[in-house]
Amino acid sequence: MDKSLLLIKRNNLFIDLFAIGLLLHTISSLFFPYKFTTTIPFIVILYCGLLFFLRRIKINNEMLQILILTGLNGYILYINIDSPYYIHILLFVYPLFVASLYHSIIPSLILLPITLIEVIFLFNTYFNRFEGSIEFADIYVVLFLMVLMSVTAIIHSHFIEKSWTEMEQQQITLERALDSRDGYLQMFFENAKDGIAVFDLDARIIEVNPAFELLYGWSRQECIGKQIPLVPPENAEAARERIKKVLKGESLYSFETKDMKRNGTFFDAQLTLSPIYDKSGEMVAMSVITRDISFRKEAEKLIVQSEKLKLAGEIAAGVAHEIRNPMTVISGFIQMMNADDQHPYQTYTKLIESELERINLIISEFLILAKPHVRTTKEFNLEKTIQDIVVLYSPELNLRGIVLTQSKSVPNAVVVGEQNQIKQVLINIIKNAIEAFKKEGSLHISTEYENEDFVSIHIEDNGKGMTQEVINQIFEPFFTTKTTGTGLGMMITQKIIQEHGGKISINSRLNKGTVVSIFLPYKERRKPAISN
Hints:
Blueprint: H1 3-31, H2 42-56, H3 61-82, H4 93-100, H5 105-131, H6 136-191, E1 195-199, E2 205-208, H7 210-216, H8 220-223, H9 236-247, E3 252-260, E4 266-277, E5 283-292, H10 294-339, H11 346-370, E6 378-381, H12 382-400, E7 402-407, E8 413-417, H13 419-435, E9 441-449, E10 454-461, H14 468-473, H15 489-499, E11 503-509, E12 513-521, E13 524-525
Parallel strand pairs: 7-9
Antiparallel strand pairs: 1-2, 1-5, 3-4, 4-5, 6-8, 8-13, 9-10, 10-12, 11-12
Helix pairs in contact: 1-2, 1-3, 2-3, 3-4, 3-5, 4-5, 4-6, 5-6, 10-11, 12-13, 13-15
């Protein structure tokens, strides 16, 4: 307990005892008169009332202590003067005893000589009255008793004060250690890079750290005391089952799932859930530590994709050359046969020739994967490159009844790379868009500056769209939804964009349409001196 708080409690106790003593003295004077009954002067009652008033206005506690001891001593001195009787002298021990209970030696050391002076004064003044009723031995015993009790009170005060000082020092040391530990824990909580949240047993949030706010997009003020949606709706039941396990005392370590941000977007999360117990071993809360592993998942996906590219390249390198040699021979004979309009199997040979051309296309795409293209650091104007492809496909788009619109926002964006490869990317995407239309539709191509480093191309159609499952597999080798497709076009498209230091993303809704976004680093916002 704080020493100042202890002094307040002691003062309150002795003021109350002072008042009770006055009351009992008054009652005893009225109903139990005896030879040496003393009167209670009005000034003593006023003094007691003053102590109550000073306590109420919260006067300095040390000053109040002095006033209490002074009042007690003065009250007893008055009793001895009003009714001189040697037994009354023993009452002087009470203020000394009270002083010793303050656990401070200074009040006892001050009060003891004052008390001795008062006792000597009383004996000198009223010795004649005491002479007939007390012997010298009695006086000696009384004085010895007073001195013994006073010394004992002083020694007790000294011992208590010393013990209190040691306890106070230990408490300070413990408080510092506790503050240090709590400080370190608070620093860890505030500066942890993983999101940390503490929930009560009803899944309401008690506390979150800044990393949690940054990760989920919810502010601390919005979270505290509430149940907020942190999981996708389809994972809600699984989340409830996890909470039931934690409430049973289980801990769940580093399991992977999907969590949801405030804006409704999902991210890959690694969670650790643990129960929190109080000192008595009762569960009082739950903790959740969340780590965003989206980048790790993306890296793993890229590694798998790279392995697939490597595998496709190895297959291409081993197969393409061996196939093309016999293909050249077969193609030559088929062309000779088709040159003869009189041969009876021309329908079949023409079909064979078209299939040979498709095989040759597949081999060409294989060769793109077999080895990296030689990159040239040639500068070209992005808008002009896009315009070349638009001019190329305009007749086919008009023929199919597809309306093409453009938004040109980067007329001076200069990209460094291989222009023909970027054209190949645009061709692949526009071809896919055209094939996505069941009938007439619209195609919109827009460009814009994303930031100081990247320029974006968005190709949007209102065709049949794709499911999320198709989007997840679209860049995998040999995956296609078309009966005549090779399943390599989008894989090659992604490879070209990545080799240019960019990235490609697809956003599609079934029966609504698709948006393919390409992000490329650009050199500067100027129009090249030489147009490509």
